[in-house]
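Put briefly, the fold is written as integer tokens. The lines below illustrate.
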Amino acid sequence: MSCDSSVLPKTGKDGKIRKKIYGTMKRQEVREEKMKCKIIGIAGGTGSGKSTFTNRLKEEFGDQIAVVYHDNYYRRQDEVPFEIRKTMNYDHPASLETDLLIQHIKKLRRGEAVDCPVYDYAQHNRSDQTIRIEPRRVILIEGILLLADKRLRDLMDVKIYVEADADERILRRIVRDVKERGRDLDNIVDQYLTTVKPMHYMYVAPTRAKADIVINSGMNNVAFDMMRSKIRQWLEKPEE
């Protein structure tokens, strides 16, 4: 937040209002600075291993850190029939309500809890449930398109891109979607060829160049040890 007093009224009764508004803005700015946390973005193509890397860090630190998944911010589509939802493009940036994610990340950074939406992969739609996420000094954000939005990138202290060969990614996606999301093979293959693959090369792969760190697997132990040490350092550092 930036306190620009030049846009506020300056004289008379308006001057008192100006001082009051400016004081409120200044207090909010100080509060945001005081509550500021470290944010790590973890991106990469479908099946690349980004969720594995994210979950390993979450298991290591537990409730000391918070995790927000971009996938949970897919737009609600109650008015769209299920058969049509099955065929829609979920790998285009417009399919995600990124504005809401940005609002939530800013709230967490200010020390405010948020109610994160929950996406139902079997129904291809946002569910009616929410997950309460409490603010933490370290927040992980994970998703294929995280680095495609400059507003999100500007919120991150560390940007990580996890990559893998295309054949490995599709095989992992098939296993995951069948076992965890209840989808049939024909739908998975059709979706991959018509939307996932072209969107990856159009929107996801180019964001590799935006990352601070590029790793070749969610099981890359060297990268994991580096991030574990960095997060531990942040958590052990006294709040200023």
